Amino acid sequence: MKREIITTADGSKTIHIPEWNEQYHSKHGAIQEAYHVFIKHGLHYYGQSNTETVHIEEPLNSLSILEIGFGTGLNALITLLESEKLKTKVDYVGVEAYPISQEEVSGLNYASELNSDRLIFDKLHEVSWEEKHQISDQFSLKKQKKFFDEIKEKEVYNIIYFDAFGARVQPELWTEYIFKKMYDALKENGVLVTYSAKGSVRRAMQSVGFTVEKLPGPPGKREMLRAAKWRSD
Fold first, then answer.
1. How far is it, in rounded angstroms, from Cα 70 to Cα 99?
2. Which of 180, 190, 210, 225 would disulfide-bridge 186, Cβ 3.0–4.6 Å?
3. Which InterPro entries would you find in this protein's record (predicted)?
4. How many domains does the chain have?
5. CA-closest candidate to residue 192, choices 171, 213, 220
């Protein structure tokens, strides 16, 4: 399937699939979307420790994150940069069935747009799959080349970045079957965040046990969803 690099509204690049009219990130701003959905409402939300709202009882010293759709590596790069700021150790697992090519990696401008080291971004893509690599003092990465329905972990992750292609083009990724796997993979009080706000997605999440809330979406999108696996007292 043909893929091409395009520039989004905030100046950052993404990959466009003409056949699907679908992008790896929002055309309204790839970096803006990543920060809003996954960092602000995922990582930062989870990190607000010792608050009644978030239900977290211990300071955030380390956490485990699963990304559904490693794709361009943008979410991983931003999380790495945030882990350094927060002084929080992050074990990051990125699942991707169809890795992008080195040529496509070379066409992405996230490092320059984020004023970060290009070598770090390249390393995210260059390290081998199926092995854990220490990318920085605070951030480790394990990339897994597999389909999302092959995920079998139980109570491993604090946060899931659910960044699959949209339900319009891949509805099979937004089902109760997949979200049950996500629910099982999360630890108690873990959260899943996604850019989608479709009613069918919200209902599928709720049906497997998630507590789901609608939140303001990133630029170009009215709403998004955050799902929590609260501890049952």
1. 8
2. 190
3. MnmC-like_methylTransf, SAM-dependent_MTases_sf, tRNA_MNMC2
4. 1
5. 213
Query: Look-up: residue for tokens 């998630």?
Result: 210
Contact predicate 163/195, CB 8 Å = yes
pTM of the model: 0.94
* Angle, CA of 23, 27 and 29, to the nearest 5°: 125
Beta strand 211-216 pairing with 223-229: antiparallel
pLDDT confidence of residue 233: 57
CA–CA dist 204, 137 (Å, integer): 38
Give a yes or no: residue 22 inside a domain.
no
List of residues 6+ apart from 140 with CB closer than 8 A: 89, 90, 91, 92, 132, 133, 134
| CATH number of domain containing 45 | 3.40.50.150
Average pLDDT, the chain: 94
Residue 205's pLDDT is 98
Q: Is residue 67 part of a domain?
A: yes
> By residue range, what is the domain housing residue 160?
29-229
Residue 173 sits at the vertex; the CA angle it makes with 212 and 100, to the nearest 5 degrees, is 120
Q: What is the pLDDT of residue 49?
A: 43
pLDDT score of 54 more than 80 = no
Asked whether residue 117 carries a pLDDT value surpassing 50, the answer given is: yes
147, amino acid identity: F
Region of 83 on the Ramachandran plot (φ > 0 left; ψ -120 to 50 alpha; else beta): alpha
Q: What is the pLDDT of residues 146-192, one digit of tens each?
A: 999 999 999 999 999 999 999 999 999 999 999 999 999 999 999 99
